[in-house]
Amino acid sequence: xxxxxxxxxxxxxxxxxxxxxxxxxxxxxxxxxxxxxxxxxxxxxxxxxxxxxxxxxxxxxxxxxxxxxxxxxxxxxxxxxxxxxxxxxxxxxxxxxxxxxxxxxxxxxxxxxxxxxxxxxxxxxxxxxxxxxxxxxxxxxxxxxxxxxxxxxxxxxxxxxxxxxxxxxxxxxxxxxxxxxxxxxxxxxxxxxxxxxxxxxxxxxxxxxxxxxxxxxxxxxxxxxxxxxxxxxxxxxxxxxxxxxxxxx
Length: 249
Prior knowledge:
The protein has helices spanning 21-32, 79-88, 144-155, 204-213, and strands spanning 9-17, 35-36, 46-50, 58-63, 69-76, 92-97, 100-104, 110-115, 130-139, 158-161, 167-171, 180-185, 194-201, 217-221, 225-229, 235-239.
């Protein structure tokens, strides 16, 4: 892939049903400990959560007639080439918002092609207790090989084994390069590809209690992660990964 068409930065968008917007904004600001930008967009439907250090990567969007979901924005210098490259890899157009092309991966996960706003963006890995730093793409078994190949190619990252066999990590050679990307092979044989956000936390049990006090619900507890549901319905995970290194302790 051309270096100008490869993503220079990733934004993780939490897409929130309009009726749960205020609750969701309050929850994620408290859960992450990050400040909120001013709303933007014609209906005030966008905002950014601003980390304590480094450049922002987590955004929120109020959506109509949709369940809670996430999508990715892929920032590139040469957006037109990036769009053509995505189509060549099997992505399909979904719609266009203003001048932003919205596409679906071969398995159906939404992502947007956006343009890099400035150079020198830096992902500061410096919050020792907790950080929302990863997207986990959940892939049914029949779509696994195609989606792994697609996301590795479109992100220009190398697949590598993760903690257990059902996971593959897309490794970023730059420690300050941006959002971590994890791929998970589901037990489901088929269905649409979806995704959820992951937080790396230093003390999972303590953090679970803190999130429950904020209104979240514990869905399931596993060896090195806990599945949670935000008050407005978004599923996400608290993981035993080190918040600075991103690795399982």
